Amino acid sequence: MPAQEKFYITTPIYYVNDRPHVGHAYTTIIADVLARTARMAKKEVVFLAGTDENSQKTVDAALKAKEEVKNYTDRLAAIWKSAWETIGITNTDFIRTTEERHVKTVAEVWRRILEKGDIYKGTYKGLYCVGCEEFKKESDLIDGLCSEHKTKPEYIEEENYFFKLSKYRKDLLQLYESNPSFIIPAGRFNEVKKFVSDGLEDISISREGKNWGIPVPGDPNHVIYVWFDALINYISAIGIDEWEKHPADIHVIGKNIIRFHAVIWPAMLWSLGLPLPKGIIANGFFTVGGVKISKSLGNAIDPLLLGEKYGFDALRYFLLREIPFGEDGDFSYEKFDERYTSDLANGLGNLSARTFTLAEKYWFFVDGGDIDAEVQVKIDSLKKEVIYAVEQFKFHDALTLIWELIAFGNAYLQEKKPWAPDAIDVSRTVFSMVVLLDNVAAIIAPFLPDASRKIAESIVWDASGTLRVKKPKILFPRRDMR
Ligand code: MSP
To answer: Has residue 137 got a pLDDT over 60?
Structure first.
């Protein structure tokens, strides 16, 4: 048997200064859809998620919570890990940047880059935003404030180690030129190209006199800059040798962290003599009621509470369906209710309930073999389009197409009225809808895994090719949502 093709996919590692909100869940769910899709294509999937813990934000949050930092990070990391389990994320590994495997790899990476001559000591004079964990230029600010956090960055003047990022400017431009799908969506890719062609400076990669973080090898008075450490998680989870053989296929990230992944990360990998990830995809941002989701505003929506109320399939469906991949959009309970009722309860739920009720009633007719050609054609063409949409990361289009098939099914039943006393072709009508649902179950599997499984388990072809059906429990109960 030929070796299984590998597929390595990652999410950002999230800061532990906060609990997961719908925005974090969104990025993670996108990665999960791709991981599940790759498994369906029989690939051997390594799917990495994790937490970014060596940040100043962690210390500040622990202080605020009046907890010892280590205890605090352990507690928060456990919250993140179990959140993904509850949501049904199928990550195969979960990395914490305070783990030994990571700390060791980071030290090794530092040594190699130093040996290569790409690290030097200098003085950093400038601004730093702890919210972003990013060095800032005056030109990045709006009215002197960080555009994202609306806070005044601190001025720092300290001895730092620098990474020779500017050295890789030409290579980066060439990479972008020769690999037009390295970053998706294209609009964001153009921003990166412009940023790099406007000129690149070396970056500071250490902080002096901080007592939280990974110490600079041989100079424990400094800790490694959190982003320099964080990016390396993608390697430390699998090991340097494994990365050399099979680097990440896809890094799934949000639009706000593209520069780190598309500029600094490739340069670090070149310096290490290691291969680059094959691609980076960046989602847009959810706002809530038009406002940025933020801890301080207290408007963060808890994906676990939403999932408990509506089911995690509904959460996945809403997030992926609401905004086209790469664009920004808004979250609201009203829209969530609306989609739940119209698309899930009335759309898929209704088609499933009607079809299985009929199939149970007429099951002795429904012995396979004869599907309405019109239905078959519809299934085949939509399936192809869905696969194409997912390949293009157009999850929103994929779901729109699948729901076209579902709407077609509901309209078909309405037209044929197999329940009417004078109905003709009852067996064929019902059988066609069972086959349609069987196909819907297969194509929604990466998106709505629970509903997919429930439908698929209700349709059994026995050894003689006879179809047995068993009505599943209500997929999406109608309810007063809040
Ligand atoms: N720790 C860094 C990432 C290091 S990766 C080597 C970080 N962490 S974070 O906790 O701030 O999470 C950032 C990611 O969460 C974003 O890039 C994005 O994927 C996701 N989102 C956070 N808020 C979001 C929205 N409001 N909407 C959509 N995605 C959001 O940055």
So the answer is: yes
